[in-house]
């Protein structure tokens, strides 16, 4: 059974850096899957942040690209998210998920981590 | 286009059938997947793939289809436990980045 678990600080100061880690168990981070970060602001919908492949190739949401970095640690079977220069707009529950791709036009997210609330506040 | 459009809210009587739709140009190229999210919980996958497959253990009252630029999630015989937010997800055909629909709040009355 594949499981993902987010960890990191629940409180970050404005203009600071948000750093989260997603530990993967039951699957290798080097498998032919993508590893994705999604967030959900309070009372809002899901927002795709970005993804990483085990080769290190990344894709980011265009509006976040200048502040976001996703990295991978094969030795620990985990991947991480860093968001710089955070504001209150970055307050959200952050989820990590495995993205499975079948052929070139079919993909889905499963499973998801339980999510971690990160609040940006002084 | 990078947008996937969903109706914000839909209601259904207990035991009746309801359809939740997701519209976007990218669905002509990429298949949609669907997620159920109950309050305070992480989303879970309910439908995926070109033929709208169900994950193991998901009730067969959930089904899906796609026609043109619109993907649909249908619940046949809605139950009280189906009350949740439903999100579609796909890829933006112009840049291949992931994109979610705005979500549909399903109420079972």
Structure characterization notes:
The complex is a heterodimer of chains A (122) and B (109). By secondary structure, chain A is mainly β. Chain A has strands at residues 3-7, 11-12, 18-25, 34-40, 46-52, 58-60, 68-73, 78-83, 92-102, 106-112, 116-120. Chain B has 109 residues and is mainly β. Chains A and B meet through strand 5, strand 9 and strand 10 of A and strand 4, strand 8 and strand 9 of B.
Highlighted features:
heterodimer, A: mainly beta, 11 strands, 0% helix, 55% strand, B: 109 residues, mainly beta, 6-stranded mixed β-sheet, 4-stranded antiparallel β-sheet, 45% strand, globular
Topology of this structure?
The complex is a heterodimer of chains A (122) and B (109).
Chain A: E1 3-7, E2 11-12, E3 18-25, E4 34-40, E5 46-52, E6 58-60, E7 68-73, E8 78-83, E9 92-102, E10 106-112, E11 116-120
Parallel strand pairs in A: 2-11
Antiparallel strand pairs in A: 1-3, 3-8, 4-5, 4-9, 5-6, 7-8, 9-10, 9-11
Chain B: E1 5-6, E2 9-12, E3 18-23, E4 33-37, E5 44-47, E6 62-67, E7 70-75, E8 84-91, E9 98-100, E10 104-108
Parallel strand pairs in B: 2-10
Antiparallel strand pairs in B: 1-3, 3-7, 4-5, 4-8, 6-7, 8-9, 8-10
Helix and strand composition category of chain B: mainly beta
What is the element string of chain A, with H for helices and E for strands? EEEEEEEEEEE
Secondary-structure element sequence of chain B?
A: EEEEEEEEEE
* Spans of at least 5 consecutive residues with low confidence of chain B: none
What is the gyration radius of chain A calculated from CA atoms?
14 Å
Largest sheet of chain A: 7 strands, mixed
By DSSP, the count of extended strands of chain A is 11
Please tally the β strands of chain B and state the result: 10
């Amino acid at each position: 059974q594949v499981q993902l678990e987010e960890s990191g600080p629940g409180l970050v100061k404005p203009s600071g850096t948000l750093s989260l880690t997603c530990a993967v168990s039951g699957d290798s981070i080097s498998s032919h899957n993508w590893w994705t970060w999604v967030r959900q602001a309070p009372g809002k919908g899901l927002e795709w942040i970005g993804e990483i492949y085990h080769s290190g190739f990344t894709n980011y949401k265009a509006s976040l690209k200048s502040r976001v970095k996703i990295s991978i640690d094969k030795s620990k079977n985990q991947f991480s998210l860093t968001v710089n220069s955070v504001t209150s707009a970055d307050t959200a529950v952050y989820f990590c998920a495995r993205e499975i791709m079948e052929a070139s036009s079919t993909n889905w997210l499963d499973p998801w981590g339980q999510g971690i609330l990160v609040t940006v506040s002084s | 286009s990078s947008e996937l459009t969903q109706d914000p809210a839909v209601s259904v009587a207990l035991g009746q059938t309801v359809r939740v739709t997701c519209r976007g140009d990218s669905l002509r190229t990429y298949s949609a997947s669907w997620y159920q999210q109950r309050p305070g919980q992480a989303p879970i996958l309910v439908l995926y793939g070109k033929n709208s497959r169900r994950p193991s253990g998901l009730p067969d009252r959930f089904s899906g289809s796609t026609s043109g630029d619109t993907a649909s999630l249908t619940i046949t015989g809605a139950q009280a436990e189906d009350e949740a937010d439903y999100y579609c997800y796909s890829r933006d055909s112009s840049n291949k980045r992931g994109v979610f629909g705005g979500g549909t709040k399903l109420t079972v009355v």
